[in-house]
């Protein structure tokens, strides 16, 4: 082991911190207060490091303490070592924190029943110690829950973003016709919105209806949506369709639910309409390590699913 290697091996973090603190404070007395050490203990640490390095780091008089020429050259390197170590420790602690914690996710009913169960199952394979609470809520309620801090994240259809929230696009979900198997439109390979809107239509909440109408009007002002029923929950709409009260149009993610109601689906064109799903979280508020890891996992998971 050469002299340089020996110096590196023998210098301690306490000595480095003492050196940097004195250089920053400009005196042993001020630095000792910052580090909760006595001036004599601090002086001993510096003397030990100077002996190891074989150089004098400070010029000391009864009135002042200043860096020597060598000390001035050494200071930025010592500062960088401490800063790099601090970042490394912080990063390691954050990785450890991601393995534990609690996440509260507000989610609209459709995606709470279709997307979230499989997503949570895959997430828990990586983070089994993180507790996940799912708050299934209607669209506006889900957004309110993340806005008030009751939920860390919200998964809901895209909408104008309130100023207190950040919105990130997740994926788009094509709207599809859902009807009974004996309905005349079920026999068609291609179904248009003009044909759909001539039938008794079962819609969801006024918010759902307004967004769908806006999408249709972008294609033609002749495509007027006038629902026979407005209901709050998808299962209610499917039950009404099952008993012959009309048809509905829902995101394609709902298709796995319709078999138990004896219903079928068909893609709708002219125009093709998508429901865009987004992730919401509070603006200007750092996500917890656990919630941050779920956000990263969600993005990666959906990218892999799309591929």
Task: Give a summary of the structure in a few sentences.
This protein is α/β, with parallel strands linked by helices and 307 residues long. Helices cover 48% and strands 22% of the residues. Helix 9 links the parallel strand 8 and strand 9.
Give a written overview of the molecule:
The protein contains 12 helices and 12 strands. Helix 2 (13-25) packs across helix 3 (28-35) and helix 2 crosses helix 5. Strands 3, 4, 5, 6, 7, 10, 11 and 12 form an 8-stranded mixed beta sheet that branches. The protein is of the alpha/beta class and 307 residues long. It folds into 2 domains: 3-96, Arc Repressor Mutant, subunit A; 103-277, D-Maltodextrin-Binding Protein, domain 2 (3-Layer(aba) Sandwich), CATH 3.40.190. The protein has helices at residues 3-10, 13-25, 28-35, 39-53, 69-97, 109-126, 139-147, 193-196, 206-217, 234-242, 255-258, 289-306; strands at 58-60, 65-67, 101-107, 130-136, 153-157, 165-180, 191-192, 202-203, 229-230, 248-251, 263-269, 274-282. The radius of gyration is 32 Å and the shape is rod-shaped.
CATH topology term of the largest domain: D-Maltodextrin-Binding Protein, domain 2
Strand-pairing-aware structural class: alpha/beta
Q: If you average the pLDDT, what whole number results?
A: 89
Number of helices: 12
* Unreliable residue runs: none
> Any guess at the CATH architecture of the largest domain?
3-Layer(aba) Sandwich
Helix content: 40-55%
Query: How far from one another are the termini?
Result: 54 Å
Radius of gyration: 32 Å
Sheet-strand content, in percent, reads: 15-25%
Number of individual domains: 2
Described by strand count, sense and barrel closure, the largest sheet is: 8 strands, mixed
Strand tally is: 12
What's the quaternary structure here? single chain
Sketch the topology as an H/E string, one letter per element: HHHHEEHEHEHEEEHEHEHEHEEH
Outline type: rod-shaped
CATH class wording of the largest domain:
Alpha Beta
């Amino acid at each position: 082991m050469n002299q340089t290697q020996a110096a590196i091996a023998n210098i301690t973090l306490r000595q480095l911190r003492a050196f940097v603190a004195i250089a920053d404070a400009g005196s042993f007395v001020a630095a000792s207060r910052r580090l909760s050490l006595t001036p004599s203990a601090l002086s001993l640490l510096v003397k030990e490091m100077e002996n190891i390095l074989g150089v004098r780091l400070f010029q000391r008089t009864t009135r002042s303490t200043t860096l020597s020429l060598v000390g001035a050259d050494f200071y930025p390197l010592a500062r960088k070592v401490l800063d790099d170590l601090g970042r490394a420790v912080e990063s390691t602690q954050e990785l450890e924190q991601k393995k534990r914690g609690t996440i509260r996710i507000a989610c609209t009913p459709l995606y709470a029943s279709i997307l979230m169960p499989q997503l949570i199952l895959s997430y828990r394979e990586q983070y089994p110690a993180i507790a996940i609470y799912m708050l299934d809520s209607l669209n506006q309620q889900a957004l309110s829950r993340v806005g008030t801090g009751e939920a860390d994240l919200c998964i809901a259809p895209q909408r104008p973003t309130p100023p207190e929230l950040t919105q990130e696009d997740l994926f788009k979900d094509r709207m599809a016709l859902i009807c009974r198997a004996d309905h005349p439109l079920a026999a068609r390979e291609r179904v248009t919105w003009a044909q759909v809107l001539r039938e008794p239509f079962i819609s969801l909440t006024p918010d759902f209806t307004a967004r769908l109408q806006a999408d249709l009007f972008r294609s033609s002002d002749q495509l007027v949506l006038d629902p026979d029923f407005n209901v709050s929950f998808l299962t209610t709409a499917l039950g009404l369709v099952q008993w012959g009260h009309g048809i509905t149009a829902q995101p394609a993610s709902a298709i796995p639910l319709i078999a138990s109601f004896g219903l079928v689906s068909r893609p709708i064109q002219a125009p093709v309409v998508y429901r865009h799903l987004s992730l919401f979280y509070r603006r200007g508020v750092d996500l917890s390590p656990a919630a941050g890891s779920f956000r990263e996992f969600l993005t990666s998971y959906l990218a892999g699913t799309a591929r």
